[in-house]
Amino acid sequence: MTQPLLSIRDLTVRVGKGAKAPAILDGVSLDLMPGETLGLVGESGSGKSTLGMSVLRLVPQALAAGTTGSIVYRGEDVLKMPGRKLRHIRGEEISMILQDPMASLNPVQSIGVQLREALARVGRDTPAAAEAALAEVNIPSPAERLRSYPHQLSGGMRQRVVSAIGLAQDPRLLICDEPTTALDATIQFQFLELLKQLRAAHDMAMLFITHDFGVVARICDRVAVMYAGQIVETGPVREIFARPAHPYTRALLGSVPATDRAPDRLPVIEGQPPSVGDRPEGCPFHPRCSAMTEACKVAPSVTPLRPDHTLRCHHPQEGAP
Amino acid sequence: MKDFSYKFALTVLVLFVLTALVGPFLVEHDPMRGSLRARLDPPFWIEGGSTTHLLGTDRLGRDVLARIVEGAKISLLVCAVVIAIAGSVGTAVGTLSGYIGGWVDRVLMRLVDLALSLPVILLALLIGAISGPSFTNIVIVISLVLWSQYARMSRGETLRVKNEEYVDLARTSGLGHVAIIFKHILPNIAPSLIVVATLQVGVVIVLEASLSFLGVGVPPPNPSWGAMVSEGRSYVVTAWWVSAFPGIAIVMVVMAVNVLGDTLTDRINPALRGRNG
Amino acid sequence: MSEAILETEGLGRAFKVKGGALHALSDVTLSCPAGRSIGIVGESGCGKTTLNRLLLLLDRPTSGTVRFKGRDLATLDTAGLRAYRTAVQPVFQNPYSSLNPRMKVRRIIAEPLKAAGRMSRAEIDARVAEVLEQVGLSVKVADRLPSEFSGGQRQRIAIARALASRPELLLLDEPVSSQDISIQAQILNILKDLQAEYGLATLFVSHDLATVRFMCDEVRVIYLGRIVEEGPAAKICTAPDHPYTAALLAAALPANPDAAEVETPPMGELPSPLNPPTGCAYHTRCPFAREVCATTRPELTATAEGKVACHKITEGW
Lengths: 321, 277, 317
Prior knowledge:
The complex is a heterotrimer.
Chain A: E1 6-14, E2 23-32, E3 37-41, H1 48-55, H2 61-64, E4 67-73, E5 76-77, H3 83-92, E6 94-97, H4 101-104, H5 111-120, H6 127-136, H7 142-145, H8 155-167, E7 173-177, H9 185-202, E8 205-210, H10 213-219, E9 222-227, E10 230-236, H11 237-242, H12 247-254, E11 303-306, E12 309-311
Parallel strand pairs in A: 3-8, 3-9, 6-7, 7-8
Antiparallel strand pairs in A: 1-2, 1-4, 4-5, 9-10, 10-12, 11-12
Chain B: H1 2-26, H2 64-100, H3 102-116, H4 120-131, H5 135-162, H6 165-172, H7 177-213, H8 225-231, H9 241-272
Chain C: E1 4-17, E2 20-33, E3 37-41, H1 48-55, E4 63-68, E5 71-72, H2 78-87, E6 88-91, H3 105-116, H4 121-134, H5 151-163, E7 169-173, H6 181-198, E8 201-206, H7 209-215, E9 218-223, E10 226-232, H8 233-236, H9 243-251, H10 291-295, E11 301-302, E12 307-308, H11 311-315
Parallel strand pairs in C: 3-8, 3-9, 6-7, 7-8
Antiparallel strand pairs in C: 1-2, 1-4, 4-5, 9-10, 10-12, 11-12
């Protein structure tokens, strides 16, 4: 039995101390195997970005005090790690790509300088290595590009540079937080293809945060659906798309328009996702749920529906949506 | 800690405004006239003083407390008039400059540069030498200095707001330029301008005090705080209270204004810069 | 054949820049008949924002004309302009910047009505309540500020404002792109319901073929300021002719892990509009490009179901 690369147990991140403080993340648990790509899907307020940031302890100081649970990476709890070890892990073991490449790149340094800074940490700070890194992410004329500044590149190119920097130290785990949301569709497509190549070449696991099911279908092996700070359903991508058991997952999948059909109306979930301070008692989705009963006022615990398909719901739905 | 200083500052300022508005009706002594028998009496807690004159008297026997209260009124008045004039002129210039753009913008901004290069004190001294100290002079001089800050701020804000989508939407409804400026631009640049105005209260008070101190501001016997500090200069060692109390008043009000302005800036700017869903 | 509410002919907008001209839009001819929904699809830099601005009179074209019920917009008098503004209303993409944060919702919605100057205060208030209800919001919303509402609610307010003057055509510029999926579905439904109930025509600008399939009857695909393909939504979104449309379709990732692998995956980068490719603007990214594609720009020619600007299709390679 292989050990999970990353094992999160009961992670709860509250705004402020005390058990009554509003929780951005509420008892989140998940496992990520080496080389596996796990998608985190959710809407605003689901906490998916906070979860991604927590793995590297990048959440704001104010939230650190209200954090409980464990994030175990290769046997060590990230939340309890001393600063030096954490800094070693960031970049060398776990790397991150964010949504806005302009925010990740220093606008006043050339990309060559930024790339070599990352390479220097693993002792590969040479022009040849920098060029090779850019070539690996399919940037044309890499030698000249090293001298370019971020604002001279297109959005898609910048995102590739960010990836090159992220991969410079050959990490085992890449966390991607909506890396393609700001890109045009045709550029997104190519970037996802690039990510697939890179993960094979570097044998990396990926935690892929997105709101787009199409992206999940394209690049993820397993997917965890998040709602209001909890993971409500987890399973292999094929299983979740074919037989989504949680009413939220079903409803969400159903409400996305597709190119191959034009119904009169899209099935909708009434209401809107709750904000952090405003979550209902028990199951956070029950006020909007079509399968809601009195039982739902008590929080459901995680139950295994099938060996690798877990659920947090009192009324799992059967069959295709 | 931050919250405390904000509340303290607010209290000081409320006290200042109340003193200025209501104070003059409550003090028993005439700030303009004094009894020569009661010259340079010390404050009541020092030997020689009495509770008749709580903060003592100045060299003409005038009650210091009464003069501070009247001085508050003068300071507030000067602030109000200056900010009204500088504010309206500056905002008008800046908003038009930012909205119209082109050569109008360039010309008006050169005007602002000109205003900024005026040497204030020198100008005040010049005007004061020519026509003597008066309220009108001091208001004109200080306004001349301060209007450009409103112009710069409102121009910058106008440039930001005029590209917002809701302004486009107003245009598509057929609204004309005047309507857009008054209904959409001004209400949205107002918060920043209020912050400028708040911070300027301190500047006005210091400027007015300085000019009065130099003898070219508020004409005697009006008890401007600055003039009072100046009057007490010659005997600051023996009758320190004549300069000290108005000086303390100046410091407290100006500090309070700055703290308030800082807090307002923090609160207003993040809210204004907008958030994304 | 219904009369077109809005139509453009050879519409173009060029900007003067250092070293030449930037053609944001070139030779765009389209027609919005009453009650029909037309989709405009394209990615960044395709000119869809420019098109919107031209149609809203926020900008003037440098070539071509825009006609409102047969009359050239450039020649309309005040009464004509008022009629145009009443009949054609926009909804923008970002509900955080399209609502004046310091205006109560009531004033925001009433603004186009007040500007037209035809209704009394009471009539305006009644209409505000009516449109709020139509978009699924309570009339109590009217006395609050936009900052008190979520993105989805704000977009509904923006739609209510657009409906207030009883328009005949809605110009929708990516109205759901910045919303959560579940909110997108709600808003798309509202739009479609309103369209059906009031016979509204819509011009729906988007980058997403799936959304356009749901909302629109016909689609026009724009690349670097030119229409490259037009046709019924069903065809464009399932079996398009133009290689760019095919690339867009491949890029519209379906929520299906077992979807077939794409034959012609998208390639290359969007060229800069400042320096567009010669000949066919798409040839630098097209897997089928031949010599003629680099030298001659293909004209928009009719096909069985629509039109396409592509040498491969018209010459039948």
